[in-house]
Design goal:
Elements (H helix, E strand, L loop, with lengths): L13 H27 L1 H9 L1
Length: 51
């Protein structure tokens, strides 16, 4: 699905670097979303509503 299956024939370690970039970008997107929700007050508001 992500194109990083198995070892790279052309450049050893290239698939590992690609997967690391994908994971890093995903984590950073999640952190950015969390910080935006905290800054806007949505996180606390929804937490108090649902608990």
């Amino acid at each position: 699905m992500l194109g990083v299956h198995g070892a790279s024939d052309q450049c050893p370690g290239e698939n590992s670097r690609t997967l690391a970039r994908i994971v890093c970008a995903t984590v950073l997107a999640g952190e950015l979303s969390l910080m935006a929700a905290l800054a806007a007050g949505h996180l606390v508001k929804s937490h108090m509503t649902h608990n």
